[in-house]
Amino acid sequence: MQIRRLAPVLAVSMMATTAPALASAPATASPARSAVPTAAYAAQKVSWSACRPDLPPSLECASVKVPLDYRRPHGAQVDIAISRIAASDPAKRRGVLLINPGGPGSWGLDMPAYLHDAFPASVRERYDLIGFDPRGVGSSTPITCGLTPEELDGERPYKPETFARHVALTRGIADKCHDKYGEDTLRQFTTRNTARDMDVIRAALGERKISFLGYSYGTYLGAVYAQLFPRRVDRFVLDSATDPAGAWHKSFKSWAPGAERAFTRWTEWTAARSDAYGLGDTPAEVSRTFWELVARADRDPVLLGGTRYSGTRLRAALRTTFVTARLGAEWVVNLKKAAAGEPTPDLPAPYPWDDNATSMFWTVVCGDAPWPKDPESYRQEAVTDAVRYPLYGDYASNIAPCAFWGRTAEPATAIDNDVPALILQNEWDPQTPLPYAYGLRRALEGSRMVTVDEGEGHGVYGTFVSDCAERVANTYLTTGRLPSKDTACEANPPQQHRKSTRVPVPVRGPLPR
Questions:
Q1: Does the predicted model carry a pTM greater than 0.85?
Q2: Is residue 29 predicted with pLDDT exceeding 90?
Q3: Long-range CB contacts for residues 294-301, cutoff 8 Å, separation at least 24
Q4: Among the options 216, 240, 254, 359, which is catalytic?
């Protein structure tokens, strides 16, 4: 998808109309920083028209103006691009359902079109499906720091001989962003401000409340909105959860133990099917087969398709495949063939993160909460975690641009409320592991959680993982009824995924480190 880039200079304009004030934050938040701004933003008229040609023709598009800095509502503004597929039955229309696909740094204008066929008619007739590019992303005044291909690659393994270069590289990313935009501007591109933008969208659309479907990072965005504006929450579905207590340094480090748990399960699954895959009769033998192939590739990089992989690179490339045990086994079989000189297909292409997506990813995760500032602390953690979590520990704990980022504008958002919400979570998720979901469940005391037993992959709703989980979500969206308690759903058989003709929903992010 082509992403339009706007000038980095943020336009300054004034809004002269008046209207009733937007909702204020609850008493637990700082009024000066969490109140939605002036009445003028609620009065702006949303003018729907055809979207740009590269977006699905079923969408209508518009834009909403929001303050760059909510403490200075009459200063610089940001344009937020929004999209819509209107409710199919005006007589049954309940309101709007905002959608966020993950990230941070991922565009969302196309999401109503992607999800339209995933929703049953009972949902489509009740809600206007609303997509939006979050501030700084896509068509919403994008942040682009001018990153090189090496800087766009977020996965850097720790090695003593390369650590100083990685320190310089990550410092350079932070310097580029700050030199281009300035610290005062970058500090405004945070999850809290994106949540405030959502409330401006709500008011501009004339809605008293919003419903929301957020994937991955979007679960954190939804939780922050619920904390700031609990009275504006209608029906929130949070899919593939992020633990708000870990935002964001602890969350990234948690990818390593999650990868080890998935790898252990994969060795057990594959050993039980040794006749089919020939990788070993016991979990220990399967593990040894993999690590011997990795060591061999570190000595002599192996050719998969048209790409040569070192063992170090293979660890990162295969990390997410191990949560889908069958897929992991198939790829290690291919790796074994490639090591023997046989032709094989290439590994799946990684998600195409560009300058805008990567720049905004670091802007948000570095700006939401403070990170450790001493590079030596990252080195020590990477050395320790490389031993403790050999598959991905040195990647997850290595130095990041956040070590050199400027001050955060506000404290990290503490999530602690009883707002009702539905959390959907696969048992085996490579990007937001199951413990993340437990953390969000604890923070949202009024929520209910549906765990897909043996569910594999990142994303539940619209991804063919579990019909049972989707039924629970659809019941909640159409009736408002949550399960009486946390519950589990069974996963669909793998062949059901492959038989479907519907395009699965693209859950985006988070960017691998």
A1: yes
A2: no
A3: 296/339, 297/335, 297/339
A4: 216
- Tell me the two tokens of residue 157: 């393994």
Beta strands in 176-330 (DSSP E): 210-215, 233-239, 302-304, 307-309
Rounded to an integer, the average pLDDT of 409-438 is 96
- By CB neighbour count within 10 A (0-12 exposed, 13-18 middle, 19+ buried), where does 512 fall? buried
Q: Cα separation of 491 and 513, whole Å?
A: 29
Catalytic annotation on 458? yes
Q: Which of 24-38, 260-274, 420-434 has the lowest mean pLDDT?
A: 24-38
- Active site annotation includes 429: yes
Q: Residue 98 forms beta bridges with which residues?
A: 130, 212
| Residue 385 to residue 257: CA distance in whole angstroms | 9
Q: What is the pLDDT of residues 85-99, one digit of tens each?
A: 999 999 999 999 999
Paired residues of 63 in beta bridges: 81
Question: Of the residues 106, 394, 458, 466, which is catalytic?
Answer: 458
- Distance separating alpha carbons of residues 100 and 55, to the nearest angstrom: 16
Residue ranges in 280-354 assigned as alpha helix (H): 283-299, 311-319, 325-339
Other Cβ atoms less than 10 A from the Cβ of 425: the count is: 25
Active-site residue among 239, 359, 429, 466? 429
